[in-house]
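User: quick one, sequence for these tokens?
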């Protein structure tokens, strides 16, 4: 006859590799280890250069939110992010940050938290009022790259009046009414 088996979560963790994985999650976070699998796509020198880059992303919805998280995984070290909107149920079909736990939360805060979960050393400057005439100079200060990803319809205009934005101002990414550009 076989002895009884304890199937509690604690017993399973103690008797499997999960224990060593849980222990390793408590080890100090290290940039070079976290992004070591990027080497080959980029050189070690290029990876260190990415760490020193600051990217501005205007719009944290379907395009900008994806850009932030992807660039954070690439190892970019600093961001200026802007969006005046909060997450709503109608965002669920297309926006990375749209989750039940983020309902009603400012998009800049939700996406900043997600990016900081990827790289806790990130320097993120948040602009929860979006990009406006009043903060445009600060938003653009110290940039090495810029991504603009906002809805370009007149009813949801999300940019300073001094920065001309039209449906044809930037290369398009789906859906057609979103403006997007990345300049480095």
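Assistant:
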């Amino acid at each position: 006859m076989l002895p009884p088996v304890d199937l509690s979560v604690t017993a399973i963790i103690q008797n499997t590799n999960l224990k060593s994985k849980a222990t390793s999650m408590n080890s100090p976070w290290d940039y070079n280890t976290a992004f070591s699998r990027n080497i080959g796509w980029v050189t070690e020198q290029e990876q260190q250069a990415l760490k020193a880059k600051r990217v501005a992303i205007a719009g944290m919805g379907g395009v900008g939110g994806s850009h932030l998280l992807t660039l954070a995984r690439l190892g970019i070290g600093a961001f200026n992010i802007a969006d005046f909107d909060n997450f709503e149920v109608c965002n669920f079909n297309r926006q990375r940050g749209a989750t039940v736990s983020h309902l009603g939360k400012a998009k800049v805060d939700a996406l900043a938290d997600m990016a900081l979960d990827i790289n806790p050393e990130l320097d993120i400057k948040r602009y929860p009022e979006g990009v406006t005439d009043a903060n445009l100079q600060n938003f653009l200060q110290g940039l090495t790259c810029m991504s603009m990803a906002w809805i370009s319809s007149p009813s949801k205009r999300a940019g300073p009046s001094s920065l001309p934005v039209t449906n044809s101002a930037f290369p398009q990414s789906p859906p057609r009414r979103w403006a997007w550009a990345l300049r480095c």
